[in-house]
Amino acid sequence: MLAVTEDAVCSLHLDYSFSSCFLRWHREDAPGALPSQTPPASKILKGEEESKAQATPAPTARQRETGGGAEIGRQQERTELAKVSDHLRDVSGGCPESDKEQQLRQEEAEFTSLKASWEKAKFRLRLLEGHNDIVTCVVAVDNLVVSGSRDTTVKVWHVPTATEHKNLGGHTGGVTCLSAPPPEYCKRLAWSLSLSDKERFILSGSADCYVKIWALSIGQCVKSIYTFNAVTALCFVPEEDGYIVTGSDGGKVQAWSWHTFEHCQSINAHQEAVTSIQSQGPLVFSGSAEGGVSVWENQCSDRDPLRLLHHWSGQVTGCRGGPGGRLTLSPRGDRVFLAYGQAWLKILHWRTGTTSRLTNHSSITGVTDCVHQTGGLLIGSCYDLANGASTLNLFSLPQCRYLASLTWPDAPRILCFAAWTTGSGDHRWVSGGRDLIVWEQLPSSGKQRGDVTVKRDSQLDSCFLESEEDTEDDEETDDYRDDDDSDEGRDTRSDGAEDGGSGSWLRCVLQ
């Protein structure tokens, strides 16, 4: 068990090597309109992926000259300017070289500033003790952290004091997933239950086949939905009256009305268990144990609200593997970041099916259990099966450039992760697995402690996105990992959450 005192402060110190390979990744693909046959999905919002390049201002007009010689001079000048303009278009794709250089300098300055901020960052770690088994899921609501565990309980924690606020018992199987509806949807349900309009609700899914809706202020279950299947993933879709979308251990995706809690749809979507479901605007993304990813459009209908837009198999995503694995996903515009127990993150361009790979560990024995986005950060967890080392790797978005790796002595394997920011803009994170830990960012001034360090990895420091032209390397790595997981790759600790690769996660939560 990790022993972390409440006043433990972490200091991040990094010695960046600016001479490392510079990656200039193309701007984030802004989610434009879908093909004409699926126009409703165009409601998805465009975010920070918009290009920051400004149009070149038109040159100032000259004062009017008189006389035939002046007119001839103007014609000659326009001809020369046209030749120069054409030349610039030829060498720079239609954009003057000065503007391209200016954009590069701006992007580099932004990345340098981000690196500098992490160079000075410090965190206080707080251990939240109370669960009797593996923490499988976490979510943050205001100043509260909600965690679900294989011990069948949902616990609510008060972050400022690091104390248990509520113990929500009611499930008879391991809790596998959590989701927090937005405040405006909580108000509607609170009004129907005669509760305060400030009431917040949490959804929990369990291997006991139930989805339960909890009122946090009173610590009670206000609604139970029996799904006839062990629930392995869920999310809330904030469209129209709202929908609850669940995934089962048999690969089924189901939809439920938030307004009436009636069953709306049931689809045999995947061959293996659904291990991750996330929403983005009117779109729903589901990932499964066999590595497949499906993209659904919410049609805001009382019956059959989900319509399949795309399905990409594990062979396409590069996340294929044996049954019992776990794929977690995090969508961003036209891209979906995928983690599937490998030493890298996969990036799926879900409209086209093209993929790229982002190195998340320099060793083949490293496994990635979860991926998360917060602000301009991409955070991937990594656990080394060979030596038991656990880290959080930070990348900048949208370029996916490596920033730092955070670790501390005896850091446990991180199976789930959530992040949010305070009113002052500081980071607060919560990680779960064998231990449940809250990370609270502190001002850079003050005495520094060495509880959390920055682990530099030269291969990650110069990492770049690799296109997936062929998957031969993936197949070799997957074969190696299967052998490693079955024998020597297992952690020597007795904890059931760390007995090999990511496949153990799904088995453990359903027991």
From TrEMBL:
Organism lineage string: Eukaryota, Metazoa, Chordata, Craniata, Vertebrata
Keywords, sorted A to Z: Repeat, WD repeat
Keyword Repeat: yes
Organism: Lates calcarifer
Region (Disordered): 47-78, 461-511
Record carries keyword NAD: no
Classification via SUPFAM superfamilies: WD40 repeat-like
Protein name: Si:ch211-154o6.3
Compositionally skewed regions (Acidic residues) per UniProt: 466-488
WD repeat boundaries on the chain: 128-167, 192-224
InterPro entries linked: WD40/YVTN_repeat-like_dom_sf, WD40_repeat_dom_sf, WD40_rpt, WDR55/POC1
Stored Gene3D superfamilies: YVTN repeat-like/Quinoprotein amine dehydrogenase
